[in-house]
Queue: 2 jobs
Job 1
Amino acid sequence: MQPQRRIRTGLPALLLGAALLLTTACSGGGAGGSGDGGKGGGASAGARPGNEASQAVVNIKPDDGAKEVETSGVLKISSTGGKLTTVTVADTKGNAVEGKLSGDGTSWEPARHLGAATEYKVHAVAKDEAGRESAKDITFTTLTPKNTFVGHYQPEDGATVGVGMPVSINFSRGITNTEAVEKAIQVTAEPAVQIEGHWFGNDRLDFRPENYWKPGTKVTVKLGLDGVEGREGVYGKQTRTFTFTIGRSQVSTVDASTHQMEVVRDGQVLKNVPITAGAPATTTYNGQMVISEKYKVTRMNGATVGFGGEYDISDVPHAMRLSNSGTFVHGNYWASSGTFGSENVSHGCIGLKDVRGAYDNDVPAAWFFNESLIGDVVVVKNSKDKQIAPDNGLNGWNMPWSEWIK
């Protein structure tokens, strides 16, 4: 029994001794502590800085797993207690979202809207002043719009066009958030030139340089409309890139008083062609007009452009549209040969001598049709009419540049 009593009385002593040792180690030494305790002991010896938590905290909105997120104005990434060093936002196909870091490095926002009905993954890293990093990853999905719009554009992808051809986009819905929609469309040229957009009403946006394009210019248009809220509750659903090339320069000048058209290509007169312009009661617009459509044979009915039943010709040859309101330069086989170059008898169009059926390539109308590109310019002067409105066809060149860029 005596050994058992010794065990009971010895255990508290051992525990007390261990406690004293622990107290001495934690305190860095007693009153007369050793030099080693003063230099290497204490809290700094027990916890290495590399193991301490970073003071930087990454904050991301929306929350992880969020659904039906708005395509703009919601995604925000920031850091408190440090600066962002890495931000990656991409969809499930790996398409990255470009963004901009604030000057102080504490926040990041996307440079453009996000796509609709798309899942995005976000990875962000921040670093505190001690160089310790903190990271955060989330996934969210943007909304699926119930109402959408698209842009119908000219010219066609891959086309070679004349120097007057603008980029013209007609939207399927009226746009109220014009700034966001215009920002989502990029038009660039090689060689580079300043290109600006101009809205005609709320459903048409045209882009052009200050002066006609230089021949040989290659133009690229990127429609990044997917996810853009064009008007309340109506989102774009179009992502498309198209290109076109500017061909040779051809500008033809119609003088309604002399009944002649001078065709100039690359600065040289190609030919002078006798014409007939609008009669005194139905004059031709003045101004710069761009060929927007070409038809070897087409029907022209006066009722469609406000002339009632004055004419309905089913087989007008070599017709090229100059305005939305019905101005064409076209072949005319029904007027006498002496009309061309001597008098104005049309309902506002520019007529050139032709044959019925458009089979003769030697007549003036056929020659001009074959030598013309969509995007070529036809200038009318000395007509007793007003200047054509800039939005009547692809005719924005009639608007001064100072007004165009407003």
Job 2
Amino acid sequence: MKRVVWATRTLLLVMTARDFDARRWVRALRRSPVKVVFPSGQVVERKPSPVKQPRKAVAEASSREQRQKQPLQVPASQTPSTWEESGLRYDKAFPGDKRLSSVMTVVKSRPFREKQGKILLEGRRLIADALKAGAVPKIFFFSRLEYIKELPIEKLKGVSLIKVKFEDIKDWSDLVTPQGIMGIFAKPDHAKMTYPETQLCHTLPLLLICDNLRDPGNLGTILRSAAGAGCSKVLLTKGCVDAWEPKVLRAGMGAHFQVPVINNLDWETVPKYLPADTRVYVADNCGLYAQAQAQVSNKASDYGWVCDRRPKLHKYEEEGEDLESRASKGWLPELEVQTYDSDWTEAPAAVVIGGETHGLSLESLQLAESTGGGRLLIPVVPGVDSLNSAMAASILLFEGKRQLRMRANT
């Protein structure tokens, strides 16, 4: 046993010595000699090698050197090019946030809308047209950040941006398929708006006056036709539906920002917005008074274009006296009746369109008489009721445009 133990101990000592020598030689190989002494006695000094840095530090140092060598590039324009660079921020509405509901309650009511001086615009295209025309935004509610990034950056400074759920926008939207963005704007002033240059180049000496138009869809369609025909202005008298109502805006398809719309006017102030020597024509309502005036041969009544139903002159119907007797006494303004395709655009012209429910007012006929205007008849087949007010306005406006272009060419 002693011999075995002694042999084992000797073997362990030998192995430990060998391991120690191996580790010592490995450390020696890793060392960098300071001096090298050759057998001839020559001594060569070695410079210490630089301490190796980690790869990450080496990469950062190299990139730093490259940046220092490259000249500093300053962008030509100091304005931010992206939404993030502009420093814009938005709030996120949490459950129970009533900012959207409180604002919608105000802008969807005409009295509050007129008192607060704010309107509601919905949809990316309508909002973009409003911003291009110079309308001043106040608040934007959106469901996706991409919708805000599509808008001009310079127009969003100072505007409250609130991100809400799409379900909240859908609850307050009047659209069948909401587009996920709603904007609250200050009520535009026609004198401060910047209308498209192409629209201004094609403007004609032709105006439109809306009298007692109550249907939002009809008014929006009429505004769209007025912009397409090149009207210089659209005047809305008291009694008409608000031009900035959401339904009118939706039917107008951006026409509010292409042609000046002047809202809520008294008849006493209407002549102030008309150019000098303007003749005012009223769209005939196919009434008894027009039939009484069309007595000359080759007039509209000879072709059955004038129906025999009672006219919708709401100011007249409040009295009990017969309309024909009043016309014979000269109580009604005497206006010449002519077809819509006869020449009536010799001077700047204004066309009055009455509502389907209340029709023309007495003030509109008096204005037409004082300016030397008349009644314009649109021929329809006998037995057919009067045309829709939006359709009648479109026919008269584009007929006026055709006559003005023919006169310009000749």
